[in-house]
Amino acid sequence: MAAASALAGAFTNLAVSAKVSSKRTNVVAKKVFSARSAVAKRNLTISNVATGPKGPATSAESSDEDKILADQGAGQYTNVDPEIRRIVPVANGRVVVKVVYVVLESQYQSALSAAVQQLNANNTQVCFEVSGYLLEELRSEKNLAQMKKDVENANVFIGSLIFIEELAEKIVAVVEPLRAQLDACIIFPSMPAVMRLNKLGTFSMAQLGQSKSAIASFMKKKKESGGFEEGMLKLVRTLPKILKYLPSDKAQDARNFMNSLQYWLGGSTDNLENFLLMISKAYVPALADMEMEIAEPETFPEIGIWHPTAPAMYEDLKEYLNWYDTRKDMKFAKDAPVVGLVLQRSHLVTGDEGHYSGMVMELESRGAKVVPIFAGGLDFSIPVERFFFDPITKGAYVDTVLSLTGFALVGGPARQDHPKAIDSLKKLNVPYMVTVPLSFQTTEEWKDSTLGLHPVQVALQVALPELDGGLEPVIFSGRDSKTGKSHSLQDRAAQIATRAIKWSALRKKKNVDKKLAITVFSFPPDKGNVGTAAYLNVFGSIFRVLQGLKKEGYNVGNMPDNEMDLINSVLNDKEAKFASPDLNIEHKMTVKEYEKLCVYQESLHENWGPPPGNLNSDGQNLLVYGKKFGNVFIGVQPTFGYEGDPMRLLFSKSASPHHGFAAYYTYIQKVFGADAVLHFGTHGSLEFMPGKQVGMSGNCYPDLLIGDTPNIYYYAANNPSEATIAKRRSYANTISYLTPPAENAGLYKGLKELKELIASYQGLKDSGRGPSIVNSIITTAITCNLDKDIKELPTDADADAKDMDSDTRDMIVGKVYQKLMEIESRLLPCGLHVVGCPPSAEEAVATLVNIAGIDREDEEIQALPQLLAQCVGQDIETIYRANDAGELAQVQLLQDITEASRAMIGDFVNKASDPSGRLAAGALGAFGNMFGGASVALPWGDSLKGTKFDSIDVAAGRKLFDYLRFCLEQIVKDNELGALTEALNGEYVLPGPGGDPIRNPKVLPTGKNIHALDPQAIPTSAALASAKVVVDRLIERQRVENNGVYPESIALVLWGTDNIKTYGESLAQVMLMVGVRPMPDALGRVNKLELISLEELGRPRIDVVVNCSGVFRDLFVNQMNLLDRAVKLAAEQDEPYEMNFVRKHAVEQAEELGLSIREAATRIFSNASGSYSSNVNLAVENSSWNDESQLQEMYLNRKSFAFNSDAPGSGMETKTDIFKSALSKVDVTFQNLDSSEISLTDVSHYFDSDPTKLVAGVRKDGKMPASFIADTTTANAQVRSLSETVRLDSRTKLLNPKWYEGMLASGYEGTREIQKRLNNTLGWSATSGQVDNWVYEDANDVYMADPEMQKRLMETNPNSFRKMVANFLEANGRGYWETSEENIERLRNLYMEVEDKIEGVEN
């Protein structure tokens, strides 16, 4: 597998870098380029296509863009009929050579067709019949059948860049049986299985990638030296010398292959003519004796600088500038921005460069200079380093880099080298924009698609460049369906050009003159919510940013002296009375001004009527809320606008911006004149506005709203999925910020008392006091409501421990102790993060303990609990299982291990703290000498001395602590403010992964441009192994609790961020439930499936109903395809119904709904394309719902859009009947928790996607399904019931003094966070009914019954306090909380008091 992957990567590089001696010189090439460029320039204006309202296109009538659709193929990504490429000659007695070609992209289509037409018109001996296919077209069975027919009658088959596994398999299946009868089969870089089809006489690659082949041996040698690709290139360069030692026939065939490669890469019409003649003459028997004049391959520079109006290509920057700066057709300002363009040579040599010319002209017409570089290979870092640096100063010559290749900077579809790319880009240190050409769709198909860009392109040409730090994946060119030629999309090119120039301007403008619009959010749009962001003290952070900007020389005007003054100046008062004059109005935009400046405002009338409307309006003007400080505007982003309207929530497929929202961004761009906008925190509404998922047109609202303003976005490091949506849909340069430091939840009140009682019992259990202590433990545990979690607790009032044997007493105490330790050790983020403020030493300990708790096989690091367990001759997994079972001795042992871990790491961290208790980079250096031989001091000091763990494996311990030292250094290296400065200076912000810092410490340090991962890399084998543990435990727990009966169907949710953090664990869970294993292809991309036999599975195949979040749908379309294929594969197995519930239900549904079994097995659902969430969360947050059936109807309406792998281009299609039918068979609802930072009540997403009560409503028996939550936040994965998890969450957060005091210390925003947890608890009551009465009762005691607490909440955020009071009253009114009339009366009085104070009514 590895060999095949390396080989494919090598051939990708080899194919585009191979050099064969040529008789022709570059002078010829330059003439060819110059002539083509002139043609391109003349034709440029008719190859523009408009896709949005940014100005009229300069194209001719729309008929110039022919859209030729086949009669078949509905639901595919492209429906172009391959027949348009068929060329059938008039033979006139000539030999007819039949050629079939399949290529990934269309740039060869035009040049190849021209070559064939020319040969057929002029050659007297031979003519060519040609049929051509683009790889993507072979998803259609009709096209595949036609290709097979063509190959059956062909002389020559040509394939190039066949890198999509499922389509590569189809090509092999067609061509391999016919290979022997073909005269020649030439495959240029492709998947190894396709490369093995090569056949030129004696030249063959049939052994390619196989372990015993000569090439495989060569690969192994090169792998050891670390230079396989370079070795392959050397092999090719020296091939001419080697050939003379081979038998002449073999040498000639090998030479013919190398020449074929050169002809193909040369790509010009002349080269392709000679390629066809050479192959035909050498291998078509009828032409063997004919005399033909065949020219050697025409070569072009490997790297260089190209310009559509230049007389030649240049291989030196000075030469290019000598020409450029003396042009007579264009004059540029002295300080004109310089944009470096990165191009693919293949488009230049094939004459398909019209889209490049269009981009050059767009930039130059706006006053920017350009340096368009190209490479023949796929390592564009080489020309970047050669041509983008000033030859005199050695600094960057360009101000922004704009890649038009669509690929990663180093590497193509098979292999990438992101570290090398990042090194080059960091050296250059300018913004790096990666735009996208339409490769697999025609322009019309893309315009008509709700998905937007083809998913394969999203994976290859959006996700992979993001790993290099690429920004702004805007489509810049389209493809003509008839000719295959690329053309410029005028409004997209204009958008890209203006944005590139704006980024460039940040490098040139003085800081004192730069204008920055800082945008904060208010969500939900209730009073007290201005400055909403996950885990972030927004105003405290903005205050630090303003201080930083002031030091950097920005004009911050009369900046407030402190955070509270800042809050007051933006909000006018702390209450933040939203949508009223109490919020500071910075600008009143008249309707006339709005209509003049906002070019798309008419498109909003359908939803919102004419301006100004009712939102962000005083009835006459549109109001922009916020406050200016010099050149910095702090503004409040308007909300979606429909949160309080239950009917609109119910029926809206997606939100729409209202006039107030449009006016806000119009103000930023055209009135305030911002040089950049900084969106502050996770997250706002801009990136979730309607439009295509990826690759937006000029009609998509995020594109219209952001306009040409560079967008910088502070985003929580643990949320890479939504950060990726912001990158792709609002063109954001996302900068990560740290989540608050985690602490152990600890114990309080009765829970603390219980721990003390257990300690007493362990010391006195064998004395006469043992039973009485157990009685006290039982009574206290029941008082703490632990009887709901511990079924073994006797609740009978007459139960007495003295009547129990010692084993029973130990079992009860063990179960209570296990539950206490679960609560005590749970990690929770305390307080809110302030940008640029790293954690203290003490705050880092809990995080490091949890980092140390995970085995890291890739680094060969053993987890600390395992090292400690080995000291007492045990295995940690055994201890975990015994602990879960409540075995008292093992619960105590695990607690001892936990305390030893904390002591070791506490000692270690204390050595790294400065006198103030903060972590300091300088302090870390002081203990660098702790990592060495046995004689050197131990990193954990004396913490294990005299304990049962002092025999720890020192070498393994040092290795672990060396890793922890690295993690500690990353925490200290915070660059959150530094990255903002870099972005505002127009510099390159280093990219880095987002995710959970505990699972993946490479997320640290923060202040990186967040990216997700290669979507085709998941699920990993490790994720599959973790998923199996959870699936086995889930199914077994339900079976045990359901009298030995297996669940037949499980409804579960897939989240984008969770799958990024865990590398696809929940994705793998779905496949394992149905008994299918995901498999990697030859390049390691996970896109294949293997059915697990029933024997191996050892249980029935469990049916699933999968609800994908809107973000998962956007990021992982390829994985949705895989999931749908997996379920359908299971459904089509001829197996007994009692062993295959997928098939059982599909057969029932097929009968019930009149469908095929395959269609009835539809199980992968989400929102409509461009739409997010069920809106249940919005309804709950705004109390805008009448009864639960309304919430359930909302869920059904918005989540019943299905993905179909048989018609993947159709996007999400409404399948409400199948959705309801599938849900009616569900026995279990299920979700995953994978990170300690986000739990069930922290965010509204979890209950928003919970279908528990909906399932009960659609089941014929009305039975409530069991509901489970998998918790993989620690190494000891758990499957708990939903109610158990809600209780755990409530005990560790809402009711926990450590948590709420941490929040209250953050003031205004902390009070809002407390209210949010209460609101989300209410949400769980509404969707699942799994919240115990005591949770509300205890919360009421904490927050409402205590006058001192009332006062604190009222003073910090009165509106959030009012909402809390309302939440309690609503919980009671809706029947979720039964309480005393005294409590309700107090709440009613409190509500009126708070209301009066907010409204300024004096009593």
Q: Order of strands in the sheet with the most strands?
A: 32-31-30-29-26-33-34-35
Radius of gyration: 33 Å
Shape: globular
Helix content: 40-55%
Mean of residue pLDDT values: 83
Low-confidence stretches: 1-47, 53-74, 209-237, 573-581, 925-935
Quaternary organization: single chain
Distance between the termini: 79 Å
Domain Magnesium chelatase subunit H N-terminal: 98-258
Pathway: Porphyrin-containing compound metabolism
Family: Belongs to the Mg-chelatase subunit H family.
GO molecular function: ATP binding; magnesium chelatase activity
Which key phrases capture this entry?
1403 residues; alpha/beta; 8-stranded mixed beta sheet; 7-stranded mixed beta sheet; 12% strand; disordered N terminus
Give me the secondary-structure topology.
Layout: H1 2-15, H2 26-43, E1 95-103, H3 107-122, E2 126-134, H4 141-152, E3 156-160, H5 165-175, E4 184-187, H6 192-195, E5 199-200, E6 203-204, H7 214-225, H8 228-237, H9 239-243, H10 248-266, H11 269-283, E7 303-305, H12 317-324, E8 338-344, H13 345-349, H14 354-365, E9 369-375, H15 381-387, E10 400-403, H16 418-428, E11 432-434, E12 436-437, H17 443-448, H18 455-467, E13 475-479, E14 486-488, H19 490-508, E15 516-520, H20 538-551, H21 563-571, E16 585-590, H22 591-597, H23 605-608, E17 621-629, E18 632-636, H24 646-651, H25 659-671, E19 676-680, H26 701-706, E20 711-716, H27 720-729, E21 732-737, E22 742-744, H28 749-764, H29 770-783, H30 806-825, E23 827-829, H31 841-852, H32 864-871, H33 876-884, H34 888-910, H35 921-926, H36 954-972, H37 976-984, E24 991-993, E25 1009-1011, H38 1021-1041, E26 1049-1054, H39 1056-1061, H40 1065-1073, E27 1076-1080, E28 1086-1091, H41 1094-1097, E29 1103-1108, H42 1110-1115, H43 1117-1131, H44 1141-1153, H45 1157-1160, E30 1164-1166, H46 1176-1181, H47 1188-1199, E31 1201-1202, E32 1213-1214, H48 1216-1223, ...
Parallel strand pairs: 1-2, 1-3, 3-4, 8-9, 8-10, 10-11, 12-13, 15-18, 15-19, 19-20, 20-21, 24-25, 26-29, 26-33, 29-30, 33-34
Antiparallel strand pairs: 5-6, 7-9, 13-14, 16-17, 17-18, 22-23, 27-28, 30-31, 31-32, 34-35
